[in-house]
Amino acid sequence: MTSPRRTTRTTRATRATRTTLRIAGDTPRRRGEDRGRQARAGITRAWQVYEELFAAVATGNARTLDVPALAHRTVRAARAWAPELVEEMEGVAEGAGLPFWTIAALNARTEILAEAGAPRTGECSTLVHGGPRTTGGQCWDWHQELADSWHLQTVTGDAQGFAGITEHGILAKIGVNEAGVGVLFNILGHTDDAATGVPVHLVARQVLGAAGSFAEAVGMLTGAPVSASTVITVVTADGAASVELSPAGSAVVAPDDRGRLVRTNHFLAPALAAGEHRGRREPETYDRHRLLTERVLRHDGGAALGPDALAGLLTAHRDDGAEVCCHAPAEGRLGSRWATLATVAVDPARRRLMVHDGGPCSAGPGTWTPLTAPRR
């Protein structure tokens, strides 16, 4: 079996147009300035939405947020761990003409939302398929109001050139670099989450720009002093593993004996699962994990997980038993309208991503945009 039945909600005949930023610079500050200049209008719009989102979530949970103070707190942690990331954010602020703390807050949006007590119903689902050539991909689920606040990118000038998708003003998210190191991204939730450590998006940026091998990537991740939880799945041509990060420590979760790995939004490592927060509040993460595990186990073990097969596996709505592919309701307040904003397939052996603008149920021939990691 190559893929389950597709439940199609929408169709799209041609590839969507999505901005691709080609960012370059021989220093972190120059790369940041280049990003800020190119994405100035988009960063401004994204910040306006996030400013409202932070306030809405905090108010809904009877909390008060000092966003500038929280942003600067994460900057101190990032400066101690990888000062070049702070220099790059400073460059973004200069290029975009915005206060530095707003760029820091965008890159720490996961941490700030954790402080605000944000629920994360919807979120992301990731699949990895081992074999002669390891491949994988994911749905990226986020707030519908931010559907126009992300872009494709290629980045050169660091130790490793890389390609991927990210939000306006955020240095990196999902991607693959010229050494064939790919990263996939799922947010987790731990009872100790806060905005005190290195932002998880900056950790992903560091891996993409510096890791030359699977071992280097895992080492960077397990050594990152984070304060909000996530799982970053490292995918290379010959292997993969998920690195669970939390304030309570880190854990490396290996694929099964056939190289399959499924991630949603809860911890799999027992020691970290003891502090689970996300799954207790939003148990649908377990439903998605069970459904996708069943589908991946039925997938043809000899076939690489290409974009169309990936979309077939990820196409699941509530009537299928789990809402992997999210569709925002027409009505609702900011913070409650979740949607699958992008579907991403990664082929590390080819240093390539295929990106579909939207959920997997609307993907098909002609809707995928290819991105190849540039040589630095």
CATH T-level topology of the largest domain: Penicillin V Acylase, Chain A
The CATH superfamily of the largest domain is known as Penicillin V Acylase, Chain A
Distance between the termini: 40 Å
Strand order of the largest sheet: 1-4-5-6-7-8-9-10
Sketch the topology as an H/E string, one letter per element: EHHHHHHEEEEEEHHEEEEHHHHEEE
Query: Helical content, roughly?
Result: 25-40%
Number of DSSP-assigned strands: 14
CATH top-level class of the largest domain: Alpha Beta
Mean pLDDT: 93
Q: Catalogue the unreliable spans.
A: 10-15
Assigned CATH architecture of the largest domain: 4-Layer Sandwich
Provide a quick synopsis of the model.
This protein is α+β, with helices and mostly antiparallel strands and 376 residues long. Helix content is 34%, strand content 22%. The chain has an 8-stranded mixed beta sheet with strand order 1-4-5-6-7-8-9-10. Strands 11-2-3-12-13-14 form a 6-stranded antiparallel beta sheet, with helices on one face.
